Amino acid sequence: xxxxxxxxxxxVPIKEIQSGTVIMKDGSFxxxxxxxxxxxxxxxxxxxxxxxxxxxxxxNSLDFSIQILVQSRRLDIRPYTKLVASREKEQVNxxxxxxxxxxxxFIEGLTEQINIMTKNFFVVVxxxxxxxxxxxxxxxxFGKKRSKEQKDISFEESKSQLDERxxxxxxxxxxxxxxxxxxxxxxLIELYYKTFNPGDTQNPAxxxx
Length: 209
Description:
Blueprint: E1 14-18, E2 21-24, E3 29-35, H1 45-61, E4 66-74, H2 78-90, H3 94-113, E5 117-127, H4 148-174, E6 180-182, H5 185-196, H6 204-207
Antiparallel strand pairs: 1-2, 2-3, 3-5, 3-6, 4-5
Helix pairs in contact: 2-3
């Protein structure tokens, strides 16, 4: 019995990323918002109650689903040590050069002994294929072929709906004290690349150079 092999790319559910929008293979759309954290422990009881109340109101106001994603990654100090190494070469004083070298060795040794982690918070907003038009005639749906002009119009209409949802989510989170930023195309590519390649800390754009 022959076993058909498939490339890893076939298992990735993403069709393409353009205009800050992730287009999935099932025709649905994704937009990703990067969020800051709130130091809840340092707030007073009254402030905590206010944050919780605003967040509850935000969740109750949603008529579509969102995904809250917390991503932890080991801190990559290579760019920092590279910067420090360049500073070492600029030193004209031998003592300063030795101190910079010792500092760099200390940082490298520390990160080898202790896993220093970075934590990022994201909100993923979805615009589902089932909500694009009627009878499955949404963007990237199967069936009768559509002209490029029709597909472009469908993409713009669907993206506009997604943009409205993202704007609504960002406004709701801002009322809780959370600062937000929508990821652009390049940032989305980097995010998904690192998600599917957790052991690779290099930027995908750097690999293409």
